[in-house]
Design a protein that fits this description.
Strand content of chain B: over 45%
Shape of chain A: elongated
Radius of gyration of chain B: 14 Å
Number of helices of chain B: 2
Mean pLDDT of chain B: 94
Largest interface: A-B, 30 and 36 residues
Helix content of chain B: under 10%
Structural class of chain A: alpha+beta
Distance between the termini of chain B: 16 Å
Largest sheet of chain B: 7 strands, mixed
Strand order of the largest sheet of chain A: 2-1-3
Oligomer: heterodimer
Helix content of chain A: 40-55%
Distance between the termini of chain A: 53 Å
Number of helices of chain A: 4
Order of helices and strands of chain A: HHHEEHEE
Strand content of chain A: 5-15%
CATH topology of chain B: Cathepsin D, subunit A, domain 1
Number of strands of chain A: 4
């Protein structure tokens, strides 16, 4: 954890100023979800050369407590999206080869390989989640993504 | 019979309370959903997807009312209930609104009687 350095000369928030107390604060910083969040802050800091506007709020225990569940949610959803993107990349890499065997069928890609297929997406989802749990698998029709028409415009009345 | 919603919609529209539930869980959120017979699929607010931490499952290419491609959306899997009628594992796309749009992937499984003149409607599971 580099963002919250011990150095008081650093522009970063010093550990010893935190209302949580140094020990509890170090503990919080070491939680995986917090680590992800703080790394993200560090990226913002490096890009903008300014500490994010909310930095001073992080020095309060009450803010940390309030943020914990939200950070956990964001972290989990980011993990899901990263896994999903990996499965999608694997699908795109394999797509030409999959055409021979699965054209017109839906396949489920998990762990960067095809784990199941079916003509019916719902049936496929049911089987995949039953076997692997509710995980971010990439399920797609081989040979053409589904096109959805959403033709209901909303009229904004004056 | 359910009354048309006329405060957010002008002209009034058939809107029903729906429950979005995380598959394999009892975690859920209640929102309203517009019956959208023009929509091929169902859309739900991105805030609900974030709240429930729904898992991404696939992608749709979206066309607007002119048939113009407007983008590719990641879809998410969810269980959806309209009253006591349940639909397990529906792929839904996110959008920025407070109300869901219930498309024909769900509507075509139901009997819906729209009494536009009286501004009431009824949904039954045939």
């Amino acid at each position: 954890m580099s963002y919250f350095s011990d150095s008081i000369t650093s522009p970063r928030i010093p550990l010893n100023g935190h209302s949580l107390g140094e020990e509890k604060y170090r503990e919080w910083c070491r939680e995986p979800e917090t680590e992800w969040f703080l790394e993200t802050i560090e990226v913002i800091h490096r890009k903008t050369l300014e500490p994010p506007w909310f930095m001073h709020l992080l020095q309060k225990e009450s803010t940390v407590e309030l943020m914990k569940p939200k950070i956990r949610d964001i972290s989990q959803s980011t993990d899901s999206m990263a896994s999903f993107e990996r499965e999608k990349a694997a699908f795109l890499k394999m797509e030409n080869d999959l055409l021979k065997k699965y054209k017109g069928n839906f396949v489920a890609v998990l762990g960067q390989k095809v784990v199941d297929s079916d003509r019916d997406m719902q049936v496929l989802m049911k089987r995949v989640y039953k076997k692997h749990g509710y995980v971010p698998a990439y399920m797609q029709k081989v040979g053409g993504r589904r096109t959805i028409r959403m033709p209901s415009p909303r009229i904004k009345r004056k | 019979m359910i009354k048309y919603e006329g405060t957010k919609h002008n002209p009034p529209a058939p809107v029903i309370n729906i429950t979005i539930t995380v598959p394999d869980s009892s975690t859920s959120r209640d929102i309203s959903g517009l019956i959208d017979t023009g929509g091929d699929g169902t859309l739900i607010p991105m805030s609900i997807i974030d709240d429930l931490n729904l898992q991404p499952v696939g992608e749709w290419d979206i066309l607007d009312f002119e048939g113009t491609y407007v983008g590719t959306k990641t879809t998410y899997s969810a269980n959806i209930s309209l009253g006591d009628i349940n639909f397990d594992l529906i792929a839904v796309a996110p959008f920025e609104d407070e109300e869901a749009m219930i498309g024909r992937d769900i509507i075509n499984e139901l009997t819906i009687l729209l009494k536009g003149k009286e501004q009431i409607f009824e949904i039954t599971d045939p």
